[in-house]
Amino acid sequence: MKIAVLTSSRADYGIYFPLLEKIKNDSFFDLEVICFGTHCSKAHGYTLSKVKSHGYKKIHEISALIANDNAVSISSSYGLTTLKFAEFWEHNHEYEMVFCLGDRFEMSAAVQAGIPFGIKFVHLYGGDTTLGAIDDIYRNQITLASFLHFTATEDHSKKIQKITNQVENIFTIGTISLNEIASFKPVSKKDLLTEYNIPVDDYVLVTFHPETIATEENELYAEEMKVSLLKIAESSNVVVTMPNADTMGSLYRDKLFETRSNKPDKIFLVENFGKKNYFSAMYHAKLLIGNTSSGIVEAASFGKLTVNVGDRQKGRAQSDNVLNATFNSVDILDKYNEAVKRGTYYGDNVYYRHNSVESIIRILKKYKNN
Which residues cross the membrane (predicted)? Predict the structure, then answer.
């Protein structure tokens, strides 16, 4: 069964990885990986090199990301990605299924270009809601262009039924990034932090992305982020993973560099951990702060409290490990102190289901055999 997987960033690749490993090592499948977006950007860590290190038989590279991150550049990148994929699909439309994941603008562009070619897209993680980001629009576009859907929760499956007006080909399988969480063995704290020249001490793990709905507020939000992190750094090390390529992402990047310059011995910036190191960083952290989906989706499985800031993740299903704060330094610090007092989280993760990858493999084989 010839399958392709679209991956546009370190984030979606980390989620895909358990599935990719299973498909790669199963003779039933003929797998090709299509890399584009920030994978091909040196400014974002050139994660294409990491993908290449995993030994896939065939990897396609499609570079279409414009360096700037204002609205015109993002829209131009969308258009350029569509043009590049129009040419790609013309010569590569023989796949039986093509996986796409999430809600990035690059992913939407790649999928939209495939519609006239009749590409059978398989969408992972439609049906979600993020009211504070334009991702909702892109996610729903991808959903409408796909024929097979794998979702994280039953509520997400119900939403896809409403969007597509169909009840078939929609399967609730949980989050595949957590597929092997029970057997996960983290890199030791000493080895992990030493690799990135970070002192071996307690730390808070931080990821902030721009708000892509209230873009006019991002300058204020970035400053509130800076004030909060400098205050937290008075009592704890702060390890920051850098933002994605979103509208005004460079504003946050610049503010993070500025923040580090104020406390270079307490604040540490990491461009790209990779999945195992990022999960290890979560495992060893005191707690998470920011507005990234990993604080909502994965952190609960590591027993970590998350201070979720702003509206970027608003509307997304949450476990009881999440403390929501506005983009205000006083509120962020209040929730941070509350999370420190609460310590470890012992509850369930609403995104976890047993053997999610195996469920996908079983369903794919059933479709092929039918």
Answer: none
For the chain, 370 residues long, give each residue's pLDDT as a single digit of tens. Answer: 999 999 998 889 989 999 999 999 999 999 999 999 888 877 666 788 889 999 999 999 998 877 677 788 889 999 999 999 999 999 999 999 999 998 989 999 999 999 999 999 999 999 987 766 677 899 999 999 999 999 999 999 999 999 999 999 999 999 999 988 888 999 999 999 999 999 999 999 999 998 877 778 899 999 999 999 999 999 999 999 998 766 677 889 999 999 999 999 999 999 889 889 999 999 999 999 999 999 999 999 999 999 999 998 888 899 999 999 999 999 999 999 999 999 999 999 999 999 999 999 999 999 888 7
> Using H for helix, E for strand and C for coil, what is the string for 264-302?
CCCEEEECCCCHHHHHHHHHHCCCEEECCHHHHHCHHHH
**Which tokens is 198 given?**
């970070």
Which residues neighbour 153 within 8 Å (Cβ) at sequence distance 6 or greater? Answer: 127, 172, 174, 317, 350, 351
Phi, psi dihedral angles at 88 (to 5 degrees): -65, -50
Q: Is the dihedral of CA 347, 350, 356, 359 positive or negative?
A: positive
Tokens of 225: 């982020």
Structural domains of the chain sorted by starting position, each given as residue range(s) with its CATH number in brackets: 2-178+355-369 (3.40.50.2000), 183-342 (3.40.50.2000)
What's the rounded Cα separation, in Å, for the pair 179 and 322? Answer: 21
Name 4's bridge partners: 32, 98
Please name the residue that has the structure tokens 């290449």. Answer: 52
322 Rama class: left (phi>0) / alpha (psi -120 to 50) / beta: beta
Identify each DSSP E strand in the chain by its residue range. Answer: 2-7, 30-35, 58-61, 97-101, 121-124, 146-151, 170-172, 203-207, 237-241, 267-270, 288-290, 306-309, 322-325
Angle at 90 between CA 71 and CA 148, to 5 degrees: 75
Residue in 88, 101, 98, 110 with CA at minimum distance from that of residue 37: 110
* pTM of the entire predicted model: 0.81
Nearest one of 170, 181, 180 to 125, comparing CA atoms: 170
